[in-house]
Amino acid sequence: MEDLIKGELDWHNKVNENFHEVDSQMAEKANKGSGATIIIAASNASDNSKLTANYLCDGINDYDIIMNAINNLPHADFKTPVGVLNAPFGKIIFTEGVFKLNTKIVLPFGSHIIAEGMGRCYQDCDFGGNGGTIISSSDPHGILKLPFKTEWGDNITFIARDLDFRQDGELLASEIAVNCVGLMSGGLENIGVINDHNISGITSQQGMGLNLNIGAYGNTAFARDIDVGAFGQGNGVYCMECGANHLVMDNIHLNGGQVSNLALKITYMGDRFYIGSLHLFQFGKTDGSTALKLLRVEHTQGPSRMSGQIGNLSFESCYKGTTQTDYFIQIDDNADLQIDRIIDNNQAAPNLNLLYGSYDKVSVKTYCGTNKQAKGGFWIPTPAVPSITPDGTAFGQENKATNNYPFPMQVFIPSFPTDCILNIQDGILSNKTVGKPASFILAPGQSVFFTKSVPASWIWLGM
Fold it and tell me: Is the pLDDT of residue 113 over 90?
């Protein structure tokens, strides 16, 4: 009887052990990615992260492992204007750590992919980071490309979140670190595109950092919490380029590394183009050897006039060149740009001329500067008040101030002397007496002079 009871207990114990083993196996499988969701672990990820991963990188050249994971995602047929593409779709989760590439990742045509990391890393790869996810490339051709194929057009749906892309090798001047040229819809969120090749010196290198162009009609794309720096040194290459039919961006930070003089180029604006907040930092050289070009709208799509909008545009430590070819904003034909507020935090490099290449196409609602504050218009270096002109003709250049800028000026005079009279000169002999206005508009080419006495001060604001 005792043997029978003992045998029954052994049988129960054996069954329970088998159940526990099956439960353990099922739990392990449940923690791993499966089907359309896969997990890739970095070589320096935690042991727990590695246990959940479907793929484990070796930290030598992780390109092959990542591309193998992408190609092993489920595939589906996607229609294009010229046929059907069979391409991968799914979600890839990158663990914390550093993924090292010797070759740029190029997504297959027609891919529909979501890529997620564990967050931004705010240190150099050599320091091990802060627990975020870094995808680092030593390839001179860049880090990531979403390819565009002429006969197919924009063909890729891609969303990336919580990743740091690091260009750890010298980028070729003609290349782009992260190139979303073939993006049909999707976007970027909490993404860094950082020049890690010479980050210790915080200097820029050649090539573009980020290209975000979405040309597909009717599709939307987004970019928010984006940090790009420091790219665009020389060769007319901007740090970042963007453009879309429907593109909404917010909290964009661009760093020129004290070398690059070209910040952001908008290649075209569709019918819904908006930037909530744009911050430009350390563009131009301290010696003034490069002409500063911070923001340019180059081309527009379609015959109708397009309008873009920026909520807050701030700039800091941006150095102007020594020539008059500097411009803060330049807009080509067929577009206009509305800016709610410009915030000038340029204490390190004051008196940056906010020259507009196309002044009539830019509207600034409020300008807030470190030296002056004004509603509407933007501050420029104010000329000295000219000396008195007794005869009222102002033939002498020293007795008048001329608006030599290609846009109108709004001139404020805080206090007029009782006997002072203001005169505006349209040409050599064409003068008109204005009187004693608190402010007036001075058109390009016009001059102003005073008779009898002069005010103690005035303020010039570009319009």
Answer: yes
